[in-house]
Structures are given as C-alpha cells and as structure tokens.
Amino acid sequence: MENTSSVHPDHCDDNSTQELMIEGAGCASCVGKIEGALKSVAGVSDAQMNFAERLVSVTGSAPIEVLIKAVEQAGYNAKGTSGISEDDLIDEKETADLAYYKRLMREMTIALVLGVPLMAYSLVVGEMSVTSPTEQGVWFIVGLLTAGVMYFSGKHFYVGAWKSFWNHSANMDTLIALGTGTAWLYSMVVVFVPSVVPDMARHVYFEATAMIIGLINLGLALELKARGRTSLAIKRLIGLQAKTARVIRDGEEVDISIDQVLLGDQVRIRPGEKIPVDGLVIDGHSAVDESMLTGEPMPVEKQEGDEIVAGTLNKTGSIIFKATRVGKDTALAQIINMVKRAQNSKPPIGRLADVISAYFVPVVMIISVVSALVWLNFGPEPAVAFAIVSATTVLIIACPCALGLATPMSVMVGVGKAAEAGVLIRNGEALQTTSKISAMILDKTGTITLGSPKVTNIHLVNADDEARVLQLAASLEAGSEHPLAMSIVESAKERGLDSSPVEKFKAIAGYGVEGLVEAQLLLFGNEKFMRERNIDIEHSVSIAQKFASEAQTPMYFAVDGSLAAIIAVADPIKEDSIAAIQRLQHNGIRVVMLTGDNRATAKAVADKVGINEFFAEVLPEDKSNKVAELQMQGEIVGMTGDGINDAPALALANVGFAIGTGTDVAIESADVTLMRGSLHGLADAIAVSKATLRNIKQNLFGAFIYNVAGIPFAAGVLYPFFGLLLSPVIAGAAMAFSSVTVVTNANRLRLFKAQEH
Amino acid sequence: MMIINALGIVLIAGIVWWFWLYKPAQTSAKPGELLVTVENGVYQPARLTLPADQATSVKFLRKEASPCAGTVVFADLNISEELPLDREISIQLPALKPGRYSFTCQMQMYRGELIVSE
Asked: CA nearest A682: which of A662, A655, A646?
C-alpha cells in the first residue's frame, strides 16, 4: 500500500455556483458595482445579486477567497454561505454516532449468537478437543461459522490492523486481530491436520474468537454512548444559539436565519425570545437573563446604549438593537470555540500516558511472543496449547485505549462543567495548574470591590464652596480614565455642575494629576504628591487617615499651591466577596490583596473582607513584581484582575484569572476567564480543576494498574504458583470494559457541584 | 525447539524494526493541497513534508465512524480539531521551524507526522 498524498483542488468547477453574503450594501446602486467587481474576476462567467437578501450568486471557477477579495476591493464585505452551523454539525454527529452504535450492536449480536452456545458447551464438556474424523467435520463447520463472524462482526478490526501494519503503526485493532486470528488459525490447523500438534494440545478455540469479537464490539458500543454524555456541556452551549432573527430591513420586519444577519442590522426581540447576535440596544428596555453564560441568576436590566449578547434570554420588554458582532465573532461563538479547544487540549499529567501509548502495542506484541516461547520451552504439556492461550490472552487483555482515554475524557467533562458555571479555562495546562494554586492575589478595585467608586465625603480646608471645589476637580479629571477620577466626574454630573476646559493636563502614575483650569493651577492626588509639591497638608493628615480607616480613599485637592479640600471616595465591596474569600481560605489558599490605594484604606478593606496580607500603594507596573515575590517564596500563584492594566501580572502568574462583569470579557486575555464578577467563580474554578485532576489520576492509575497487572497475569506468571491461567474470553471482557470504565468514571464529574455559595 | 526459539527471536526483531526503526517514505505536496484521509485506523498519507517558516493548511477528511477517529491532535502545536464524518476540515498550521511534529488521535493510536524542512 502506497503512502501517497492526495491533492485536493482549491478551485471550483467551471460551472459551479457559489453564494456570497454581502455586508455594507445599503442601496440598490451597490448591486451593479458588486456584480461588476465579481464579473471582472478571471474565471467568473456570471454574478447575480439579490439585494433584498444581500446574497450574490457567482457562477464560475474562481476560488471563494478571490471573490471575497474582489468584493472587498469594491468597498464592501463578503462572506461565503456554504459553512455549516454548529447545530447542524452536532445533529450530523449524533446521527452518525447512532448509526455506528446500531452497527456495533448488530455485530455484537451476530458474534454472541455463535459465541455464547459454544462457550456454554465448553463449560459443560471442558476443553473442546478434536479426537475423531466426525469431530473434525463438526469443528470444520463451526470454524467456517466463526470465519463468518470474523467477517461480518470483526471485519473492521482486521482491515484496521492490516492498514495500520502497512503504515508501520499498530493499534487496538492490531491486538484484537492478532489475538482472535491466532486462536482461529490454530484451531483450524487442529481441525485440518491434527497430527502436527501433540494429542493433548488438540483443542479448538472458536468460542474465544467469537466471544472476544462480540464483547469488544459491545464495549465499543457502550463507550460510544458514554462518550456522547461527555460532550453535553458544549451541546448545551451550542443549543443556546437562536436559529432565526427578526431584522428590520427597508422598514419591514423579516425573519431570517442568524447566518444572514449583517453587521449594523436592526434586530427586534420580543419577550421570551433568545438574543440571536451581539448588539447595542437602540430602543426599548427589558430584563435579560444572562445566567446561561455567566451563571449569574439575577436578570440584568438593559436599556438604550447597553450591550446585549447572543444566547441570553429576553425576559420582559420588547427591544430593538443594532447588531455589532455576528457569526463567529459573537461572544457566545467565541466561548463555544474556546471551550471546544480547551476540551481537546491535554494537561501535562497526560503526557506520560501518551508516551506509553505510542510504544504500547508493539511492546505487547513482543511480550506475547516471549510468553509463547517461555511456555514452549518451560511449560508443562500440552505446552503448545498453553503457549497459544497465553499469547492470545496477552494480546487481548492489553488495553491501550484505557490509557489513551484516561486524560481527554476527564478534561472534556471538567472543562465543560466549568463552562456551565461561567468559568472558561483556556487549556489543559491551565486546568492542571489551577488545581495546584497555593496563593491567590486579588486586585482590590473591580475584583473585591465593584470597581465603580463614588464620592462619599468632601472635607473643605482652605475653601468654602463645596460645589466649586467639586466643579474644579471634575474639570481637571475629565480627561483621566482612572476609576477614581471617573467617580469625581460622575459626582459633579449628578449635581449638575458643568466642567471647564483643562490645559497642560499631566498624569503622574502613582501620584496624581495636575493641570490649569480657569487659570488656576490644580493638583489632585495622594499624600506623596502633595509633599513633593510642597503643599502644606500637616493639619489635614489626620482627617485623611480617618477616612482611610473607614475604607474610603482620601485624595488631596490643591488650588494655586494651597490645599483646598480632601475628597474621599469609596468603592463598595461586592456583596459576596467576603464569602468567596472565606471559601478560598478554607481550601488552604493564601489570599493576598493588592492595591494602588494607601495603606490605611487597604487595611480597612482587607479587614472588612477577612484578608490578613495585602500590598498597598503598588504602582501598576509593580504588580508583576508582587507576583514574582510570592513565586520566590515557593507559591503557585494565581493572579486575579480585571484584565485592563493587569496584563503583565496576569501573564507572569502561574494562572491568570480575568474577572468579567456580565459577558463583557476579554476571552483571549487570561488562562481562566470568570464570566461573572463574583469571586465565587475563583473558588469554583479551583474546585472543578481539582476534581478533574483527581478524576484524571483515578483514570490513569486504573488504566496503568489494569495493564501492569493484567498482562503478566494473562502471560501466566501465576500458573507456577497457583495453577491459574486466564481464559482469552475473560481477557476480552476485561479489555472491552476497561475503556468503558474510564469513560464512565470521567462522566462522574458531571455530578460535580461547586460548594454552596 | 531451537528453530522455534530462533523464529521467535526473528519475530521480535521484526516487530522492533517494522514499527520503530523503519523510516517509511514521506509525502510532499504544495502547501494548501494536502488532504489526509482518516480511515480504517490510519491517516493516509501519514507522513507529510512541509516547507519551514511558512504558514500552511492541511485538510482532513474522516471517512470512519469510530469515535477514535473523531479528533486530530497536533500536541506540539497545541492544536486539536474535531473531524466530522465525511466532511473536509481545513486545519491552519503556523509557520514551523524545521523538525518533526506528530499528529495523532486523542488516544495516540492513529499516528502521523509532519516533517518540516528548509
């Protein structure tokens, strides 16, 4: 058999028709431009556009990539329509799996219809021997029937073994084909020319061949069923996708497939409907249930300007939104993609099993030959029969599949289970490291707290108008993106204060900001900043300290070289942060808080949430140093941040957790993404990863022990001591059910429940 | 008995040579034109030669219903892809340094190799 490549043409037949969906075609005059652009492509004989559906049908031999490029050059976007939806792929897979299951069960039945009576007969009469010409005739017919079973029920093993052999590889088919083939061939030799084997060894093993084929087909069928259950989580995610969307085009509402929704389309959603694509609400308001993606049980209020995401459920009102992400770009599609990738990736713990699997089958073949030789040289009579039985049993009992399945099946279920809880794990390596985390660094703002600070106190020093102070401070901070600055601006807006333009604005990281407003030099920042600029704050430090001890962040505001006020801002602690931190601590994890805030505020917040260790006044660029510091102490460090200015620290940590609010998450930014804001997601992630790793270890241990104990037993090492030699039929049953056991154990993970919140 | 023992040893040597030592022929084709068929327990072709430092794609067509054939894993490249039955799937490979990169099914029973050379 030649190991040849096949060349697949990447262009179409001369008269094939392809469909493109066009984006950005807003008027009927675009039609001529798009058709013209496509017709000018070499190999295109015709292009017809249906403007209402934004579809263009192209006849000719040009590849789709060239057609898309031509449309893009004409100023529009295009995509092919030949893709198949995830939903359809799942349906296809289920249909194919069901057909395969039925085939395996049919093959199993055929094999056992012959195997079971033969097995029963052998149990009654003992060894099935050939001692007379009549018996020769009877066993010849049985041998032919067994050959029929091998053909109808076991053909796939033999063809697979043959093809693998010529490909210089060996797999489970090789072992089964060799084992059953050896038993059948030996039996036929005994039937045809009994004289070539000693009297005592004239036994036939047709029942073993038929039973092994039947049992292994049964094992494969059960494994297929169990495997189906391992992917339930991803099926559930895919099932969240709506099939149709009601879009408003040319003033009319039309129901179209979600594949045909274009960027910028206006989509109407009625109560009780699923959101089909991501978008921005432009009219109406409603409560949207996002629990299926975030695990957050409370519906979220949505109104004009709010983002909504595909797969979530509109509860109460009717809304119209503008599509901002469609097709593969929606958050749901990205989540599905990430979960699928993670489910198929392997944690390092599985690598040893992979190495063993790669050498496993040839090694078993060698052990089988050695075993036969040992029996022939040193075994009791009938040595030939013992040699055949032991060689066959060694081949049949060995199960590379249990080893190979041990890790991926558990990862499949574990990653899916995590996704159901709103925890997206990037890959198997992240899963394994998460299970080992010994210290967790939590960024204070946006992680422990809500991340939306509010002005709580304005203590006037050398000023007498609170509104004026706030108006000047807000004017200075208008250009800043710091969360504290935004709280000042927000507070001024709430009081209806207009801001004035700022000049010479300068932000000094870790200190504060300065600028000119209405010809006054304004400074706004922390104590260090004021001291550096020689502002007299001596009489006000105690006030600031009092605010800090109450978990408020005090900031000094100076006008023209004189301290005008201390403005205190507080960021409320998330409702469940305390409980989640306790969960982490109960699980033996050292929890450390990190913040740019002053020490007193940090201490007050840490005390409130029950954290003993914290790093205060940490500049953004120093966050990663703190991660390194804990790593130097031998900790496996998890770092949790909102992903905005934590990127280096998240990257340096053994596991970086990005904490999202709602579904506005940067999926690609961290090892683990928590889709809801709650810190319980951290504890859930660690719990599910520990459970998965435990499950993998159980599987690997079981598979190793099974093979390490089973193979010598099959070879007959116990025979000299206890007279025990395993029957090939029992070996076949053990082998068939070892991989089913692995998959079933992985499925136990589906019952995993994170600790009650 | 001597003959049987000698045959046994030859058989063991044969297994070692055939499965581990023998270097089978490699297959090369223009990037983007490779189609690997997954059928009867093997990848066909199983050894593909690709140019170094050039991103490319390889198409897979699974013709076998066994779930073992359902996923192809490029462990060194951190790529794994599900292969639907009777449907071509194109897998994008990044630009690779010269070397050998294996691809397997999840259980390492189906095995293939990318041979990347200058």
From this structure: A655
**Tens digits of residue pLDDT in B60-74:** 999 988 888 888 988
Give the separation between CA A230 and CA A237, rounded to whole angstroms.
Answer: 13
Is pLDDT at A285 greater than 70 in this prediction?
A: yes
Structure-block tokens of residue A607: 């005390």
Q: Which residues of A are the active-site residues?
A: 443
Instruction: Give the sheet arrangement for strand A454-460, strand by strand.
Output: A454-460, A562-570, A553-559, A520-525, A512-517, A502-508
The rounded Cα A631 to chain-centroid distance in angstroms is: 27
Q: Which residues are CB-contacts of A308 (< 8 A; sequence separation ≥ 6)? A: A275, A278, A279, A280, A281, A288, A302, A319, A321
Instruction: Say if residues A637 and A625 touch (Cβ distance below 8 Å).
Output: no
CB contact under 8 A, B109 and A400: yes
Mutate to test the interface with A, among B59, B68, B91, B102 (most CBs of A within 10 A): B68
How far is C-alpha A507 from the geometric centre of its chain's CA atoms?
Answer: 40
Handedness of CA A41, A47, A50, A55 (dihedral sign): negative
ipTM for the predicted complex comes to 0.86
User: d(Cα A529, Cα A545) in Å, to the nearest integer?
Assistant: 16
> How far apart (Å, rounded) are the C-alpha atoms in residues A609 and A613?
11
Read off the pLDDT band of A583 (50, 70, 90): very high
The predicted-structure confidence for A27-37, as pLDDT tens digits, reads as follows 667 777 888 88
A179-188, A191-200, A567-576 — most confident range: A179-188
pLDDT in tens, A147-168: 999 999 999 999 989 988 988 8
**Angle of helix A172-192 versus helix A351-378 axis, rounded to 10:** 20
The pLDDT value given to residue B44: 86
CA gap A276, A661 in Å, rounded = 20
pTM value is: 0.79
DSSP state at residue A267: E
CA distance A468 to chain B (A): 59
Distance CA A380, CA A419 (A): 59
Return residues 713-752 of A near B (CB < 8 Å).
none
- In the three-class reduction of DSSP (H, G, I as helix; E, B as strand; rest coil), residue A726 is classed as coil
- CB A8 to CB B85 under 8 A? no
Type of residue at A754? A
- Tokens 């200058």 found at: B118
Listing DSSP states for A94-129 in one string gives HHHHHHHHHHHHHHHHHHHHHHHHHHHHHHHHSS-B
For A688, the 3-state DSSP assignment is: helix
Spatial separation of the C-alpha atoms in residues A67 and A60, rounded to whole Å: 10
What does the pLDDT look like over A676-687, one tens digit per residue?
878 999 999 999
Q: Which of the two residues, A586 and A754, has the higher pLDDT score?
A: A586
Chain B CB contacts of A84 under 8 Å are 87
| Chain A residues within an 8 Å CB radius of B19 | 168-170, 361-362
CA distance A338 to chain B (A): 11
Contact B67 A97 (CB under 8 A): yes
Highest CATH level, class, for B26-117: mainly beta
| Cα dihedral across residues A249, A254, A260, A263: positive or negative | positive
Cα separation of A138 and A134, whole Å? 6
CA–CA distance, A389 with A228 (Å, rounded to integer): 36
What are A573's strand-pairing partners?
Answer: A449
Q: Where are chain B's structural domains?
A: 26-117
Helices A383-397, A351-378: inter-axial angle, 10-degree rounding: 170
Q: How far apart are CA A480 and CA A93, in angstroms?
A: 53
Q: How far B91 CA lies from chain A's nearest CA (Å)?
A: 13
Instruction: Give the closest of B32, B39, B67 to A224, CB-based.
Output: B67
Residue A113 CB burial class (10 angstroms; 0-12, 13-18, ≥19): middle
